[in-house]
Amino acid sequence: MANTEKTVRVRLVKGLRGVQARHRLSVKALGLNKTNDVRELKDSPQVRGLINTVYYLVRVEE
What we know:
Blueprint: E1 7-12, H1 21-29, E2 38-42, H2 45-53, E3 58-61
Antiparallel strand pairs: 1-2, 1-3
């Protein structure tokens, strides 16, 4: 079997000015730095939790 792990693409669509420090850390944990940065991450409950925390800053592209 080849790579069968599910992945999720996450894009940062809003800037981080005026955002809670905790949410800023969640975005950093997702590996996103600048607006329009995209990361392909393993789909796990931990990653989904981070995405749910900053749902208003990111777009999920499955």
